[in-house]
Amino acid sequence: MKAVGYQVNLPIDNEASLQDITLDKPNAAGRDLLVKVQAISVNPVDTKIRANVAPESGYKVIGWDAVGIVEEVGDQVSLFNVGDLVWYAGDLTRSGTNAEFQLVDERIASLAPTSVSVSQAAALPLTTLTAWEMLFDRLKVNTEANQSILIIGAAGGVGSIMVQLVKKLTNLKVIATASRPASVEWLKQLGADQVIDHNQSMSEQLGMNDCVDYVVSLNNTEQHMPEVMKVIKPQGQFGLIDDPSSFDIRALKPKSVSLHWEFMYTRSMFETDDMQKQHEILAKVATMIDSGEVKTTLGEHFGAINATNLKRAHALLESQKARGKIVLEGFND
């Protein structure tokens, strides 16, 4: 089968950073589905793994968002049948979506939405799970209260779906941040109640301190912490998903702020008792898409799934100038 992989951690402008390769087609067993991949999207985690995690042997295939057709099921599979169209965000510890065929545990996949194209659907699984788990499993937001949430770096993949989920499923006021005019307009289209610039003083733009119930930081958390501590209410909830090089938790003490870290792969990595919750979340959001409540966060379509196009996608993500998600479709040359 065709795939894209690497043998050495290299900068994305190096010719060998990602390569077109041929691998053996895997077989399904146990609770695994063998999926014929139709479309994928690229996430910041792809660039981090490519740059920092070396293969144990041979080539490493990455990628953690896909839509595809179930070609084969393991002997313990009960949720799907051959021929089903599924979507999922995969497992960090297994071979990724940048391949014609992939094995995925049925507990972290669901039937894909049918009202959008496979490329539009592929933009959503990983970011949807991250956003949903942050909101409802980590922060445990009060869906009925007239409170507020500040989403820092909201124009990217996770923020784009988080804004929509908050607007559809809670009564929270959504304050989103963005620094470019196109990103500001994007967030307004998605339903943000207010958009401010995270490169300027957020407390000054909001006009007061101690005014936000929940804060979610999606990137550059270390840079934003002083302003976060100004605007968050005493006994507020603070969540993050990135990897700050340093993080002084003592800053949270004066206001008794609760800290929540969201890592979408935790359930699959540790096969937690509630691992199948990801199946349920994706199924719920697929229904929301098909009913028109949530729209795709596809930003750019980069063409076929090959090394050249994936390198372009990685480069754009590393520039931190992407808006929405980058999607690739099919394994044509």
TrEMBL record:
It is found in: Cytoplasm. Gene3D superfamilies: Medium-chain alcohol dehydrogenases, catalytic domain (3.90.180.10), NAD(P)-binding Rossmann-like Domain (3.40.50.720). PANTHER family: QUINONE OXIDOREDUCTASE. Homotetramer. GO terms for cellular component: cytoplasm. Keywords: Cytoplasm, Metal-binding, NADP, Oxidoreductase, RNA-binding, Zinc. One of its GO terms (molecular function) is oxidoreductase activity. It comes from the Bacteria. The keyword Cell inner membrane does not apply. Belongs to the zinc-containing alcohol dehydrogenase family. Quinone oxidoreductase subfamily. The keyword Transcription does not apply. This is Zinc-type alcohol dehydrogenase-like protein. InterPro entries: ADH-like_N (IPR013154), ADH_Zn_typ-1 (IPR014182), ER (IPR020843), GroES-like_sf (IPR011032), NAD(P)-bd_dom_sf (IPR036291), Quin_OxRdtase/zeta-crystal_CS (IPR002364), Zinc-ADH_QOR/CCCR (IPR051603). Residues 16-328 form the Enoyl reductase (ER) domain.
